[in-house]
Amino acid sequence: MTTTAQPIDTQTDYSENTDLENQYLTFILSDEEYGVDILRVQEIRGWESVTTVPNAPDYIKGVINIRGTIVPIVDLRMRFGMEQLEYGPITVVIVLKVIGENRERVMGIVVDTVSDTYDVPEDSIKPAPDFGEKIEVNFVKGLATINEKMLILLDIDQLLNSGELNILD
Amino acid sequence: MGIDLSQFHETFLEESFEGLDVMESSLLNLDAGESDSETVNTIFRSAHSIKGGSATFGFDNVATFTHVLETLLDEVRSGDRDVTQDIVNALLESVDCVRNMLEAQRDNSNYDEAQVKAVQTRLEAILGNDEVSEETTDVAEESNSSNGWLIDFKPHLNMIQTGNDPVRIIRELESIGVISVKANLEKLPDLAEMNAEDCYLSWEIELYSDVDESAIREIFEWVEDECDLNIKPLQTEVAAQEIKSVDSPSIKTEVKPEVEVVNKNEESVQNKATPARTKSTGEGGSIRVGIDKVDELINLVGELVITQSMLGEMGQNFESSNIEKMMDGLSQLERHTRELQESVMRIRMLPISFAFNRFPRLVHDLSSKLGKKIELKLSGESTELDKTVMEKIGDPLVHLVRNSLDHGLETPDIRLAAGKPETGILHLNAYHKGGNIIIEITDDGAGLNKDRIRAKAISNGLITESEVLTDEKIYDLIFQPGFSTAEAVSDLSGRGVGMDVVRRNIRELGGAVDIVSSEGKGSTITIRLPLTLAIMDGQLVRVGKETYIIPIVSIIESLQAKKESINKIVDHAEVYKLRDEYINIVRLYETFDLVPDSTDVSNGLLVMVEGEGSKIGLFVDELLGQQQVVIKSLETNYRRIEGVSGATILGDGTVAMILDVAGLVVLSRAKTSVNEDKVA
User: What is the pTM (predicted TM-score) of this model?
Assistant: First the structure.
């Protein structure tokens, strides 16, 4: 896996991107393909060892240093309560910009592997059915079908501001 | 033409605040009766710059106000007026007013206009020796006053071109009384023929105010040659009638183009002001750095460049015989990097006088309010401190000083009865000690009443009656939330919200606060703060696979635990007997849920640390090296972690957590008390 950094124009206004099409970066998690808004992706890195955070929930693997900033790393499989997979050479960390109530944070998510990028027309996104307990439905923005495949589009702001990651102060 | 002045606003405001500080401190040095011309000149210059600047930037309220202020100062400066305590007090109040107005400007908020008017009236009263009385500001009464002027103001066609704005003049008139304006549109040409830079309007202005003619002439001073001006007294009856018949909205519609534009501007300003904006705390502001510090930096960077090129050259034609030279170069590089780092840190350092400067005024104001005689002594003002620390320590310091003034120092009669000099002394001192800065607030007042604190704590349920407490523990009680022993709650202090907040703020800065008191003789509050928040010396320790950093300032000693010195109190709490003290042992692997090399304390090391006034022994597996660490926030992207104050990046690029010693002490206390509960 390459560890190319993808510079993202920080000036981009996300709200103006809701019409027509949005580009999504997709990744694989336990044979399913998930997508995140590509404009939120700061970089994609290979898995490297982390410094554990004391008394944090299991799915927070720890923190890493990205060019002088301390960035927490969330294991998405564990966050969704899936079976754990041993980290290998294709395990990647997708570093995302997460917008919370009053601030922006940078976080990394550990996924099995990165898949592709797709243009998804906004009107082809279908609301998600209730998945039951594994994935709370409000983490999912919707489902889309590309080339006969189903994509689960994640709302990373909901996902990475929930639970223990919530800003408690 | 279109220079955007707003880009200079910040600079102007910053300079003005500095000017105000200068004015304030000079005023406090200006004793009644004395007219030290240099001091007066300094005050005058500051006021003058603020006036000039605010007029340029269109802060008319400030300009008008400072104009009055300046006039008074000018008279003092030229010796026409003696300095009296009354004048000094009025001037101090005006400094506050200007500061409020400028702060309102900065934060886009509102200021207390009534206060400003009151102070302005007071200044005018001093100026005019009561000739100019309160009517100037009292609008309601004004309209009934019989005196007034009819001003016939006919600007020449080219007046706007000369840079004078009739609207400003009219507004200035408004500041000295109630006005009713009628615009004369007769000369207004068709739109097609209209030249935007010509003034076609003329005005008939009725001013209801008993200012004399010269005051009005003064307003028109700049445009005298560019208009026809006719000022005559107004008939009383006419005045009364006019007010009834002409209501102000219609006047405004009559006054055509320019005035309307102005109104719109005003509206938009008001609209901007209404949404509750978060107050800017000024933390993102700029900093003034002495040129010597910058020069030093440039020198160091120069050296660094030389060393770098030397090393580069060596690397290109590297021979093993050069290895010694290479090592030399590297050590030079290291030295330069360290020096550079120190110099960069020094840029953020400011003398603590920035924080101390507000106290002469505070003491001056409060002592007269409380009827106490207090002498303020300052020392160590040149001690340097990080700017961020300085900004955050300001409020806690004010609180502590207020407390000392209010509760500590007694009134003159009580002092005399106690055989002490009438004037109480409050001493603020600052000095460096190790990697810390120490600030002491000492008063020779009544001191803390231990019995009363104890009684209060018992009634508040903080302690039980049977508890035996050392003096330090008793003094520590006053830092508990909701604690106050003041018999009377005053508007200064005594509400019991405060000391706990003070301590929390200081703790957040990584500092500590202690109090020592002797009844009848006074108290000393000692604040210990880290010099800087960005870099510190750390001891690296290993617990299991993880590396943690303990701030060296909080380490007392590290030792190999002796089995016979470890004692267990009931099941869980462990203490270590170090000389004649019993110290709580904290097993870091338990606190942080890790797998250690050994769970037997006697196999590992105990690092004795001190925080929150008590000591704990941290049980770790191994001591690694010591190094300077740059503190990084965990909260930027994650959140606060209990027992951890931040993180840093080690030489190999990995992250290590920095332990929050004070937090761990609190955690260990909480744990001990939980165990006590279990026993009970």
Answer: 0.51
